[in-house]
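Worked example 2:
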Amino acid sequence: VGEVVVFKIKDRDIPIVHRVLKVHEKPDGKIELLTKGDNNRVDDRGLYAPGQQFIGREDILGRAVGTLRYVGMVTIILNDYPALKYVLVAVMGLFVLTEGDQ
């Protein structure tokens, strides 16, 4: 509990990085996790696949060992404003075209 993990939800392309909120161990020894984003008011059950209440070990891709604050905001902004992606690609293309050998 408290560790930050990277996990992937079935039928979603982008991995999620959130903190483990609760650990449930079943009688058969299987471990299930409930996660929550630090800035979210509720747990991640709304993000999980339909009918899924917890994530299992098979959903875990890894754990976080460091932080780069606000880098995830870039993804959110680019998803909210798709035209911005084209502007950034155009600007990068301009840099490539105008960069001369020195």
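The radius of gyration is 19 Å. The mean pLDDT is 90.
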